[in-house]
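pasting for the record
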Amino acid sequence: MRIVICDDDAAATEQIASLINGYFASVHLKCPEIVVFTDGAALLADPGAMDIVFLDIEMPGTNGVYVGQELTHRNRRTIIFVVTSYLEYLDDAMRFHVFRYLSKPLDRQRFYRNMNDALALYHIVTATVAVETKQGVHSVPADSVVMVETTGRKVTVHTVAAAYDSVHSLQHWLKALPSNNFFQTHRSIS
């Protein structure tokens, strides 16, 4: 995991980095890599992964709204927090599906609650499942699985992009897929 902070205010980036480190210490996890940018253009030029992004809106040059739109366009799974003092940008931020809108100065308890939610989402969107077929094994993102269906003895895993005839039973898929995203509606469909 890689966490990115983009803000032209050094005090704000220090506070966010400190809160991130404090959060991971409080949940007894090793803090992932934290990368700091002071402008949007530098962030967009970075080829590295951007799993969670803390993004200021008001910055010189490329503003945070444009940066957020570009990040969402590049990878819809990027979790973006908008961190700003300006509430008038809320509508613009919602257009690029911002995960949370945090107001400066940041509140530690609210920050930690939102990090819990962000990590839960991160684990969902990065989870993959192995779909074993007679032709081979296909690794697919768990969040691309639409449904698993049985017809007779045939089990089909339907994803957004394709359908796979699985060699595993429906019971296997009930255990393999994230339980908070899937449920069995009928004995032959999950």
